[in-house]
Design brief:
With 393 residues, the chain is of the alpha/beta class. Helices cover 39% and strands 12% of the residues.
């Protein structure tokens, strides 16, 4: 994992009233999986992204001038990026999160580059400066569609398309993270020919630079060995349209920026229609989440038993009481992976409910009884019925 990326600990997840409210939308037997999914998200702070992008821009060849543009979505069908006078189309007047930060970084980099980096130059400035290097900046590239749309919108002006066809223009796509498949998709769908007979095939005109590259099909590298239960969870929320359940393009991304929430992460995190309440409404990171990441909750030293709403902890205690004690066995019963089960066990141990050899303490037994739904039978959230008369281990 890149330096500076933050994750949510089990204690942070359990301590958040907002997260627990969001979890109530899932049936009890899926909530532990939802918690595990949250623990696998990677959060990139503004400073982390800013420093990375400034460093990438500083590595551009200072002997040449570079036209730098922020990748953005344009309105309309088959839009052209350039206005009639050859200047870039105007941006929306409202705050756009990701774009605002990128524009600010590009502007500052241009001022300190001594003329090497040009901030969103017009076509006339490109012609006068004989600019050949175009640097397109994004934060995260999942499917590659937005980059394709942006480049093609730039190439809809006949002058730039002519320069592109003649091989006078090179494009460097700079993004904090990208998938391998996005590279192929972008090269394949950008305007122009990649035929070997071309003097300069378009694949030789496009380069990429990222801090993180990943294969979107290798889910275990991002989501852990319990990735299939996360996939099943994403597809279980029918309020979210099918094509958004795994994130745009089916990427199932796990990278979240403080300044912007990509649409390639699971839809249940950002989609807010059909009665579903997302954790990141309007694809923005709430202030409370940033605070939670920057000031994580300390490990709990005790457990509150009466009225406790932590179904995950209760399920863990109930399973341990029934004789299930290894992290692997517990993970299989709770629809999570062994590392997350380890974290749950550690939390129960820090709360004084479980011993070092994963057996219930007296407090753990009391916790179980205080939170049982009836005096005779505890209904385990995953459909199992565990008699309270069973041994406490």
């Amino acid at each position: 994992m890149l330096t500076g990326i933050r994750t949510l600990s089990v204690d942070a997840i359990k301590s958040s009233a907002e997260i627990n409210q969001w979890l109530l939308q899932f049936p009890p037997h899926r909530r532990t999986t939802a918690e595990m999914m949250l623990s696998r998200l990677w959060f990139v702070g503004r400073d982390v992204y800013s420093e990375w992008l400034k460093r990438e821009l500083s590595l551009l060849d200072p002997k040449h001038k570079h036209a730098v543009y922020a990748v953005r979505k344009l309105d309309g069908t088959d839009p052209c990026y350039w206005q009639d006078d050859g200047t870039p189309t105007q941006r929306s007047g409202q705050s756009l999160g990701s774009e605002d930060l990128v524009y600010s970084i590009i502007s500052n980099a241009g001022r300190v580059s001594q003329g090497a980096l040009l901030d969103h130059p017009s076509l006339s400035e490109i012609k006068e400066g004989r600019l050949r290097s175009f640097v397109l900046v994004d934060d995260s590239i999942g499917s590659g569609q937005r980059v394709v749309d942006f480049i093609n919108a730039m190439l809809r002006h006949k002058q730039l398309m002519s320069w592109w066809s003649l091989g006078w223009v090179r494009v460097r796509v700079v993004a904090f993270a990208r998938t391998y498949s996005a590279e192929r998709y972008i090269v394949r769908n950008v305007r122009g020919s990649d035929h070997h007979a071309r003097v300069i095939p378009k694949s030789e005109k496009i380069a990429f630079a990222s801090g993180l590259r990943y294969d979107a099909t290798l889910l275990e590298s991002r989501w852990g060995s319990g990735f299939q239960s996360i996939v099943d969870l994403c597809r279980s929320v029918t309020a979210i349209p099918t094509f958004m359940q795994d994130g745009f393009g089916g990427v199932l991304g796990n990278l979240v920026f403080y300044h912007s929430v990509p649409d390639n992460i699971p839809g249940m995190l950002w989609y807010g229609e059909n009665g579903w309440l997302p954790l990141f409404p309007n694809r923005g990171l709430p202030v409370w989440m940033a605070d939670l990441l920057e000031h994580p909750a300390p490990a709990r030293g005790h457990a509150t038993t009466r009225g406790h709403q932590d179904t995950g902890l209760f399920s863990l205690i109930a399973l341990i009481k029934s004789g299930v004690r290894t992290p692997l066995s517990l993970s299989l019963r709770m629809n999570c992976d062994a590392p997350f089960a380890h974290a749950l066990i550690a939390r129960a141990q820090s709360a004084g409910l479980v011993t070092a050899n994963v057996r219930l303490t007296e407090a753990g037994v009391n916790f179980f009884h205080d939170n049982s739904r009836t005096n005779d039978v505890a209904v385990y959230d995953y459909g199992m019925y565990i008699p309270t008369s069973w041994s406490a281990g």
